[in-house]
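Can anyone check this?
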Amino acid sequence: MPESRHPMLRPVQSVSVFGLGKLGASMVGCFASAGMRTIGVDINPASVRAVNRGRAPVEEPGLQSLFTRYRRRISATRDAAAAVGTTDASFIIVPTPSRPDGSFNSRFVEQAVRTIGQALRNHRSYHLVVVTSTVLPGTMKQRILPVLERASGRLAGRDFGLCYSPEFIAIGNVIRGLLHPDFFLIGEHDSRAGSRLESIYRIQGGPRTPIVRMSMVNAELTKISVNTYVTGKIAFANQLARICDRLPGGDAFTVAQAVGLDHRIGPACLKPGPSFGGPCFPRDNRAFAAVARKRGLRAPAAEATIESNRAHTRFLQHYVEALKPAPSARLAVLGLSYRPGTGLLEESCAVELAHAWSVSGPVSVHDPLADPGEIRRRLPGCSRARTVPACIRNADIIVYATDHEAYRPIDLKHVARLAPGAILVDVWGRWASATTPDGLSYRTPGFQTANKHDTITSRGWKGPT
Protein backbone atom coordinates (compact mmCIF):
# COMPACT_ATOMS: atom_id res chain seq x y z
CA MET A 1 0.00 0.00 0.00
CA PRO A 2 1.59 3.34 -1.00
CA GLU A 3 2.30 5.75 1.81
CA SER A 4 -0.28 8.19 0.42
CA ARG A 5 -2.95 5.68 1.46
CA HIS A 6 -1.78 5.96 5.06
CA PRO A 7 -3.20 9.43 5.81
CA MET A 8 -1.82 9.45 9.35
CA LEU A 9 1.77 9.43 8.08
CA ARG A 10 3.41 12.69 7.10
CA PRO A 11 6.31 12.67 4.61
CA VAL A 12 9.66 11.61 6.03
CA GLN A 13 11.73 14.69 6.74
CA SER A 14 14.43 13.41 9.06
CA VAL A 15 16.35 10.20 9.75
CA SER A 16 18.92 8.96 12.24
CA VAL A 17 21.69 6.52 11.36
CA PHE A 18 23.13 4.31 14.09
CA GLY A 19 26.77 3.51 13.30
CA LEU A 20 29.19 5.87 11.56
CA GLY A 21 31.47 3.42 9.82
CA LYS A 22 32.06 3.28 6.05
CA LEU A 23 28.45 2.49 5.19
CA GLY A 24 26.75 4.39 8.00
CA ALA A 25 28.62 7.62 7.37
CA SER A 26 27.93 7.29 3.64
CA MET A 27 24.23 6.80 4.35
CA VAL A 28 24.27 10.03 6.39
CA GLY A 29 25.72 11.93 3.45
CA CYS A 30 23.32 10.39 0.94
CA PHE A 31 20.19 10.99 3.03
CA ALA A 32 21.25 14.59 3.52
CA SER A 33 21.81 14.98 -0.22
CA ALA A 34 18.20 13.81 -0.72
CA GLY A 35 16.95 16.72 1.41
CA MET A 36 16.49 14.96 4.75
CA ARG A 37 17.79 16.26 8.04
CA THR A 38 20.13 13.51 9.17
CA ILE A 39 21.57 12.67 12.58
CA GLY A 40 24.44 10.22 12.94
CA VAL A 41 24.61 8.25 16.19
CA ASP A 42 27.78 6.60 17.41
CA ILE A 43 29.44 5.67 20.70
CA ASN A 44 32.79 6.95 19.40
CA PRO A 45 33.16 10.59 20.50
CA ALA A 46 35.82 11.25 17.83
CA SER A 47 33.38 10.29 15.06
CA VAL A 48 30.67 12.47 16.55
CA ARG A 49 33.03 15.45 16.85
CA ALA A 50 34.21 15.04 13.28
CA VAL A 51 30.67 15.04 11.89
CA ASN A 52 29.66 18.08 13.92
CA ARG A 53 32.69 19.91 12.54
CA GLY A 54 31.67 19.12 8.99
CA ARG A 55 34.20 16.34 8.46
CA ALA A 56 33.46 12.83 7.25
CA PRO A 57 34.45 10.40 10.05
CA VAL A 58 35.83 7.85 7.56
CA GLU A 59 37.60 7.87 4.20
CA GLU A 60 35.39 7.03 1.23
CA PRO A 61 35.53 8.57 -2.26
CA GLY A 62 33.02 11.42 -2.59
CA LEU A 63 31.92 11.35 1.05
CA GLN A 64 33.62 14.52 2.24
CA SER A 65 32.10 16.50 -0.62
CA LEU A 66 28.63 15.44 0.54
CA PHE A 67 29.41 16.42 4.13
CA THR A 68 30.70 19.79 2.98
CA ARG A 69 27.83 20.52 0.61
CA TYR A 70 25.02 19.44 2.95
CA ARG A 71 26.58 20.35 6.27
CA ARG A 72 23.51 22.24 7.47
CA ARG A 73 21.43 19.05 7.31
CA ILE A 74 23.99 16.84 9.06
CA SER A 75 24.74 16.45 12.75
CA ALA A 76 25.84 13.69 15.11
CA THR A 77 25.30 12.70 18.72
CA ARG A 78 25.96 9.98 21.27
CA ASP A 79 22.47 10.54 22.68
CA ALA A 80 20.34 7.85 21.03
CA ALA A 81 17.13 8.98 22.71
CA ALA A 82 17.52 12.53 21.40
CA ALA A 83 18.17 11.24 17.88
CA VAL A 84 15.14 8.94 17.88
CA GLY A 85 12.94 11.58 19.46
CA THR A 86 13.64 14.15 16.77
CA THR A 87 13.58 11.97 13.62
CA ASP A 88 11.01 9.99 11.65
CA ALA A 89 13.10 6.87 11.02
CA SER A 90 16.19 5.16 12.41
CA PHE A 91 18.62 3.05 10.36
CA ILE A 92 20.93 0.58 12.10
CA ILE A 93 24.25 -0.26 10.46
CA VAL A 94 26.52 -1.80 13.07
CA PRO A 95 28.85 -4.83 12.81
CA THR A 96 27.53 -8.41 12.80
CA PRO A 97 30.74 -10.40 13.40
CA SER A 98 31.10 -13.86 11.94
CA ARG A 99 31.19 -16.85 14.26
CA PRO A 100 33.56 -19.81 13.66
CA ASP A 101 30.73 -21.79 12.04
CA GLY A 102 30.08 -19.01 9.51
CA SER A 103 26.91 -17.64 11.11
CA PHE A 104 26.56 -14.00 12.21
CA ASN A 105 26.48 -12.65 15.74
CA SER A 106 23.70 -10.05 15.99
CA ARG A 107 24.51 -8.79 19.49
CA PHE A 108 25.46 -5.27 18.36
CA VAL A 109 22.26 -4.96 16.35
CA GLU A 110 20.28 -6.12 19.37
CA GLN A 111 22.04 -3.57 21.57
CA ALA A 112 21.18 -0.79 19.13
CA VAL A 113 17.60 -2.00 18.83
CA ARG A 114 17.26 -2.14 22.61
CA THR A 115 18.51 1.44 22.89
CA ILE A 116 16.08 2.60 20.21
CA GLY A 117 13.26 0.69 21.85
CA GLN A 118 13.89 2.40 25.19
CA ALA A 119 13.76 5.76 23.41
CA LEU A 120 10.45 4.81 21.79
CA ARG A 121 8.77 4.35 25.18
CA ASN A 122 8.22 8.09 25.36
CA HIS A 123 7.89 8.64 21.62
CA ARG A 124 4.24 9.21 20.75
CA SER A 125 4.40 9.43 16.97
CA TYR A 126 4.96 6.55 14.54
CA HIS A 127 8.66 5.76 14.07
CA LEU A 128 10.27 3.48 11.50
CA VAL A 129 13.17 1.23 12.53
CA VAL A 130 15.30 -0.19 9.70
CA VAL A 131 18.04 -2.77 10.16
CA THR A 132 20.64 -2.43 7.40
CA SER A 133 23.33 -4.66 8.94
CA THR A 134 23.55 -8.07 7.31
CA VAL A 135 21.85 -10.71 9.46
CA LEU A 136 20.93 -14.37 8.97
CA PRO A 137 17.46 -15.48 7.85
CA GLY A 138 15.11 -15.55 10.82
CA THR A 139 17.04 -13.00 12.89
CA MET A 140 14.60 -10.14 12.40
CA LYS A 141 11.53 -12.10 13.50
CA GLN A 142 13.12 -14.30 16.15
CA ARG A 143 15.53 -11.86 17.81
CA ILE A 144 15.21 -8.24 16.67
CA LEU A 145 11.42 -7.90 16.82
CA PRO A 146 11.05 -9.35 20.38
CA VAL A 147 13.89 -7.16 21.69
CA LEU A 148 12.38 -4.04 20.17
CA GLU A 149 8.87 -4.72 21.44
CA ARG A 150 10.08 -5.55 24.97
CA ALA A 151 12.33 -2.51 25.19
CA SER A 152 9.69 -0.12 23.85
CA GLY A 153 6.63 -1.66 25.47
CA ARG A 154 4.91 -1.14 22.13
CA LEU A 155 3.75 -3.26 19.19
CA ALA A 156 5.30 -3.40 15.75
CA GLY A 157 2.85 -2.49 13.02
CA ARG A 158 0.63 -0.51 15.35
CA ASP A 159 3.02 1.79 17.21
CA PHE A 160 6.19 1.63 15.12
CA GLY A 161 7.44 0.16 11.86
CA LEU A 162 10.16 -2.44 11.37
CA CYS A 163 12.02 -3.34 8.17
CA TYR A 164 15.14 -5.15 7.07
CA SER A 165 16.86 -3.38 4.21
CA PRO A 166 20.50 -4.27 3.49
CA GLU A 167 22.57 -2.39 0.95
CA PHE A 168 24.45 -3.91 -1.98
CA ILE A 169 27.56 -1.78 -2.21
CA ALA A 170 31.30 -2.09 -2.75
CA ILE A 171 33.75 -0.32 -0.48
CA GLY A 172 35.40 2.43 -2.51
CA ASN A 173 32.20 2.92 -4.50
CA VAL A 174 29.69 3.27 -1.67
CA ILE A 175 28.21 6.66 -2.60
CA ARG A 176 27.31 5.58 -6.12
CA GLY A 177 25.98 2.28 -4.79
CA LEU A 178 23.66 4.09 -2.37
CA LEU A 179 22.42 6.73 -4.79
CA HIS A 180 22.20 4.55 -7.90
CA PRO A 181 21.66 0.94 -6.82
CA ASP A 182 20.45 -1.81 -9.11
CA PHE A 183 17.47 -2.07 -6.75
CA PHE A 184 16.35 -1.32 -3.22
CA LEU A 185 15.46 -4.36 -1.11
CA ILE A 186 12.79 -4.01 1.57
CA GLY A 187 11.93 -6.78 3.98
CA GLU A 188 8.84 -5.52 5.78
CA HIS A 189 7.13 -6.54 8.99
CA ASP A 190 3.92 -5.05 7.59
CA SER A 191 2.81 -3.00 4.59
CA ARG A 192 2.69 0.25 6.50
CA ALA A 193 6.38 -0.03 7.41
CA GLY A 194 7.29 -1.09 3.87
CA SER A 195 5.44 1.87 2.36
CA ARG A 196 7.16 4.23 4.74
CA LEU A 197 10.59 2.95 3.75
CA GLU A 198 9.67 2.95 0.06
CA SER A 199 8.84 6.64 0.32
CA ILE A 200 12.35 7.31 1.64
CA TYR A 201 13.97 5.37 -1.18
CA ARG A 202 11.86 7.14 -3.78
CA ILE A 203 13.32 10.41 -2.52
CA GLN A 204 16.85 9.04 -2.42
CA GLY A 205 16.97 6.96 -5.60
CA GLY A 206 14.35 8.54 -7.82
CA PRO A 207 11.29 7.02 -9.46
CA ARG A 208 13.06 4.62 -11.83
CA THR A 209 15.09 2.54 -9.37
CA PRO A 210 13.33 -0.80 -8.77
CA ILE A 211 12.10 -1.35 -5.22
CA VAL A 212 11.51 -4.97 -4.24
CA ARG A 213 9.31 -5.59 -1.19
CA MET A 214 8.96 -8.93 0.55
CA SER A 215 8.89 -10.54 3.97
CA MET A 216 11.81 -9.97 6.32
CA VAL A 217 13.02 -13.57 6.17
CA ASN A 218 13.06 -13.59 2.39
CA ALA A 219 14.99 -10.31 2.34
CA GLU A 220 17.49 -11.77 4.79
CA LEU A 221 18.04 -14.73 2.48
CA THR A 222 18.16 -12.51 -0.62
CA LYS A 223 21.06 -10.48 0.78
CA ILE A 224 23.43 -13.39 1.32
CA SER A 225 22.17 -15.12 -1.85
CA VAL A 226 23.23 -12.21 -4.07
CA ASN A 227 26.79 -12.23 -2.75
CA THR A 228 26.98 -16.02 -2.88
CA TYR A 229 25.96 -16.00 -6.54
CA VAL A 230 28.34 -13.16 -7.47
CA THR A 231 31.29 -14.88 -5.82
CA GLY A 232 30.42 -18.03 -7.75
CA LYS A 233 31.00 -16.10 -10.97
CA ILE A 234 34.30 -14.71 -9.71
CA ALA A 235 35.46 -18.17 -8.64
CA PHE A 236 34.48 -19.62 -12.03
CA ALA A 237 36.49 -16.98 -13.92
CA ASN A 238 39.50 -17.69 -11.72
CA GLN A 239 39.04 -21.40 -12.27
CA LEU A 240 39.28 -20.69 -16.01
CA ALA A 241 42.60 -18.99 -15.32
CA ARG A 242 43.97 -22.04 -13.55
CA ILE A 243 42.87 -24.33 -16.40
CA CYS A 244 44.23 -22.04 -19.12
CA ASP A 245 47.53 -21.82 -17.29
CA ARG A 246 48.04 -25.53 -18.09
CA LEU A 247 46.32 -25.50 -21.47
CA PRO A 248 48.67 -24.80 -24.39
CA GLY A 249 47.45 -21.61 -26.03
CA GLY A 250 44.87 -21.05 -23.31
CA ASP A 251 43.61 -17.53 -22.66
CA ALA A 252 41.18 -17.21 -19.75
CA PHE A 253 40.44 -13.55 -20.50
CA THR A 254 39.24 -14.26 -24.02
CA VAL A 255 37.21 -17.28 -22.88
CA ALA A 256 35.58 -15.33 -20.02
CA GLN A 257 34.72 -12.46 -22.33
CA ALA A 258 33.00 -14.85 -24.76
CA VAL A 259 31.12 -16.67 -21.98
CA GLY A 260 29.88 -13.34 -20.62
CA LEU A 261 28.25 -12.49 -23.94
CA ASP A 262 25.61 -15.13 -23.29
CA HIS A 263 22.59 -13.17 -22.00
CA ARG A 264 21.91 -15.86 -19.40
CA ILE A 265 25.30 -15.19 -17.84
CA GLY A 266 26.44 -11.61 -18.48
CA PRO A 267 29.94 -10.12 -18.19
CA ALA A 268 29.76 -8.61 -14.70
CA CYS A 269 32.24 -10.18 -12.26
CA LEU A 270 33.32 -12.71 -14.88
CA LYS A 271 36.96 -11.69 -15.19
CA PRO A 272 40.04 -13.60 -14.06
CA GLY A 273 42.03 -11.89 -11.35
CA PRO A 274 42.83 -12.24 -7.65
CA SER A 275 40.78 -14.28 -5.22
CA PHE A 276 37.79 -12.41 -3.82
CA GLY A 277 38.07 -10.98 -0.32
CA GLY A 278 36.90 -8.08 1.80
CA PRO A 279 34.36 -7.72 4.58
CA CYS A 280 31.33 -9.14 2.73
CA PHE A 281 31.94 -11.70 -0.02
CA PRO A 282 33.79 -14.43 1.91
CA ARG A 283 31.65 -14.25 5.01
CA ASP A 284 28.33 -14.12 3.17
CA ASN A 285 29.33 -17.30 1.34
CA ARG A 286 30.16 -19.01 4.62
CA ALA A 287 26.92 -17.72 6.11
CA PHE A 288 24.89 -19.15 3.21
CA ALA A 289 26.46 -22.56 3.83
CA ALA A 290 25.80 -22.20 7.58
CA VAL A 291 22.12 -21.45 6.95
CA ALA A 292 21.82 -24.66 4.96
CA ARG A 293 23.64 -26.74 7.62
CA LYS A 294 21.40 -25.41 10.37
CA ARG A 295 18.45 -26.86 8.48
CA GLY A 296 20.04 -30.24 7.90
CA LEU A 297 21.11 -29.45 4.34
CA ARG A 298 24.27 -28.75 2.42
CA ALA A 299 24.98 -25.87 0.09
CA PRO A 300 27.47 -27.55 -2.27
CA ALA A 301 27.63 -24.60 -4.67
CA ALA A 302 28.58 -22.18 -1.88
CA GLU A 303 31.00 -24.68 -0.38
CA ALA A 304 32.65 -25.22 -3.76
CA THR A 305 32.98 -21.46 -4.25
CA ILE A 306 34.72 -21.13 -0.88
CA GLU A 307 37.15 -23.94 -1.67
CA SER A 308 37.75 -22.70 -5.22
CA ASN A 309 38.61 -19.27 -3.86
CA ARG A 310 41.11 -20.75 -1.43
CA ALA A 311 42.55 -22.85 -4.24
CA HIS A 312 43.06 -19.75 -6.35
CA THR A 313 44.98 -17.99 -3.59
CA ARG A 314 47.23 -21.05 -3.29
CA PHE A 315 47.59 -21.15 -7.08
CA LEU A 316 48.74 -17.53 -7.24
CA GLN A 317 51.22 -18.11 -4.42
CA HIS A 318 52.69 -21.15 -6.20
CA TYR A 319 52.63 -19.30 -9.53
CA VAL A 320 54.81 -16.51 -8.17
CA GLU A 321 57.00 -18.89 -6.16
CA ALA A 322 57.75 -20.93 -9.30
CA LEU A 323 59.21 -17.81 -10.94
CA LYS A 324 61.69 -17.28 -8.12
CA PRO A 325 65.15 -16.97 -9.71
CA ALA A 326 67.05 -17.48 -6.45
CA PRO A 327 66.29 -18.25 -2.78
CA SER A 328 67.01 -14.63 -1.82
CA ALA A 329 64.95 -13.13 -4.66
CA ARG A 330 63.21 -9.88 -3.80
CA LEU A 331 59.45 -9.53 -4.30
CA ALA A 332 57.59 -6.25 -4.80
CA VAL A 333 53.82 -6.15 -4.41
CA LEU A 334 51.85 -3.23 -5.86
CA GLY A 335 48.46 -3.01 -4.16
CA LEU A 336 47.41 -4.79 -1.00
CA SER A 337 43.70 -4.07 -0.63
CA TYR A 338 41.13 -6.68 -1.58
CA ARG A 339 39.78 -4.55 -4.44
CA PRO A 340 40.60 -1.27 -6.23
CA GLY A 341 39.39 1.99 -4.71
CA THR A 342 39.67 1.03 -1.05
CA GLY A 343 42.38 0.52 1.53
CA LEU A 344 40.72 -2.42 3.31
CA LEU A 345 43.01 -5.42 3.70
CA GLU A 346 40.49 -7.89 5.12
CA GLU A 347 40.91 -11.35 3.56
CA SER A 348 43.01 -9.83 0.78
CA CYS A 349 44.70 -12.19 -1.65
CA ALA A 350 47.60 -9.75 -2.03
CA VAL A 351 48.23 -9.68 1.71
CA GLU A 352 48.31 -13.48 1.86
CA LEU A 353 50.71 -13.61 -1.08
CA ALA A 354 53.07 -11.06 0.45
CA HIS A 355 52.97 -12.78 3.83
CA ALA A 356 53.73 -16.21 2.34
CA TRP A 357 56.78 -14.86 0.48
CA SER A 358 58.07 -12.92 3.49
CA VAL A 359 58.60 -16.16 5.41
CA SER A 360 61.61 -16.97 3.24
CA GLY A 361 62.52 -13.83 1.28
CA PRO A 362 62.49 -10.02 1.27
CA VAL A 363 59.24 -8.31 0.30
CA SER A 364 58.53 -4.66 -0.43
CA VAL A 365 54.88 -3.57 -0.53
CA HIS A 366 52.97 -0.47 -1.56
CA ASP A 367 49.34 0.58 -1.45
CA PRO A 368 48.16 4.18 -2.01
CA LEU A 369 45.03 3.79 0.14
CA ALA A 370 45.80 1.29 2.89
CA ASP A 371 46.53 2.49 6.41
CA PRO A 372 50.30 2.23 7.14
CA GLY A 373 49.65 0.94 10.64
CA GLU A 374 47.36 -1.77 9.32
CA ILE A 375 50.00 -2.81 6.78
CA ARG A 376 52.60 -3.13 9.54
CA ARG A 377 50.20 -5.11 11.71
CA ARG A 378 49.26 -7.60 9.00
CA LEU A 379 52.67 -7.79 7.31
CA PRO A 380 55.33 -7.36 10.00
CA GLY A 381 57.90 -9.16 7.86
CA CYS A 382 57.50 -6.83 4.87
CA SER A 383 58.99 -3.44 4.06
CA ARG A 384 56.39 -0.75 3.31
CA ALA A 385 57.45 1.60 0.53
CA ARG A 386 56.07 5.13 0.34
CA THR A 387 56.22 5.32 -3.45
CA VAL A 388 55.92 2.97 -6.41
CA PRO A 389 59.54 3.50 -7.54
CA ALA A 390 60.81 2.76 -4.03
CA CYS A 391 58.75 -0.42 -3.95
CA ILE A 392 59.84 -1.91 -7.27
CA ARG A 393 63.46 -0.70 -7.48
CA ASN A 394 65.78 -3.68 -8.10
CA ALA A 395 62.99 -6.19 -7.48
CA ASP A 396 63.32 -9.64 -9.05
CA ILE A 397 59.56 -10.19 -9.27
CA ILE A 398 56.85 -7.49 -9.29
CA VAL A 399 53.28 -8.52 -8.59
CA TYR A 400 50.61 -6.12 -9.77
CA ALA A 401 48.04 -7.25 -7.21
CA THR A 402 45.42 -4.46 -6.99
CA ASP A 403 44.31 -2.34 -9.94
CA HIS A 404 44.16 1.01 -8.14
CA GLU A 405 43.42 4.16 -10.12
CA ALA A 406 46.64 5.64 -8.74
CA TYR A 407 48.60 2.99 -10.64
CA ARG A 408 47.17 3.86 -14.05
CA PRO A 409 50.07 6.20 -14.98
CA ILE A 410 52.63 3.40 -14.50
CA ASP A 411 54.87 3.13 -17.56
CA LEU A 412 56.35 -0.32 -18.22
CA LYS A 413 59.48 1.25 -19.70
CA HIS A 414 60.06 3.04 -16.40
CA VAL A 415 59.45 -0.23 -14.55
CA ALA A 416 62.10 -1.93 -16.71
CA ARG A 417 64.63 0.81 -15.90
CA LEU A 418 63.97 0.61 -12.14
CA ALA A 419 64.01 -3.19 -12.02
CA PRO A 420 66.13 -4.47 -14.92
CA GLY A 421 65.57 -8.14 -15.61
CA ALA A 422 62.50 -8.33 -13.40
CA ILE A 423 59.43 -10.46 -14.01
CA LEU A 424 56.11 -8.59 -13.89
CA VAL A 425 53.20 -10.77 -12.73
CA ASP A 426 50.06 -8.93 -13.80
CA VAL A 427 47.25 -10.59 -11.83
CA TRP A 428 44.63 -8.30 -13.41
CA GLY A 429 45.82 -8.65 -17.00
CA ARG A 430 46.05 -4.90 -17.28
CA TRP A 431 48.99 -4.90 -19.71
CA ALA A 432 47.95 -8.04 -21.62
CA SER A 433 47.73 -6.14 -24.90
CA ALA A 434 50.68 -3.80 -24.26
CA THR A 435 54.16 -4.18 -25.67
CA THR A 436 56.60 -5.44 -23.07
CA PRO A 437 59.83 -3.39 -23.12
CA ASP A 438 63.26 -4.97 -23.25
CA GLY A 439 64.58 -5.89 -19.85
CA LEU A 440 61.18 -6.85 -18.44
CA SER A 441 59.45 -10.23 -18.58
CA TYR A 442 55.65 -10.33 -18.50
CA ARG A 443 53.36 -12.96 -17.00
CA THR A 444 49.60 -13.06 -16.45
CA PRO A 445 48.05 -16.09 -14.71
CA GLY A 446 45.70 -17.81 -17.13
CA PHE A 447 47.06 -15.96 -20.15
CA GLN A 448 50.03 -17.43 -21.93
CA THR A 449 52.49 -14.87 -23.22
CA ALA A 450 52.49 -16.48 -26.66
CA ASN A 451 48.96 -15.15 -27.07
CA LYS A 452 49.92 -11.61 -26.15
CA HIS A 453 49.53 -10.07 -29.58
CA ASP A 454 48.03 -12.66 -31.90
CA THR A 455 44.93 -13.44 -29.83
CA ILE A 456 43.65 -10.37 -28.04
CA THR A 457 44.92 -7.56 -30.19
CA SER A 458 43.90 -9.19 -33.47
CA ARG A 459 40.31 -9.26 -32.25
CA GLY A 460 40.31 -5.60 -31.39
CA TRP A 461 39.85 -6.27 -27.69
CA LYS A 462 42.00 -4.02 -25.55
CA GLY A 463 42.49 -6.59 -22.85
CA PRO A 464 40.71 -7.23 -19.55
CA THR A 465 39.31 -4.24 -17.69
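Reply from J.R.: I decoded it. The radius of gyration is 24 Å.
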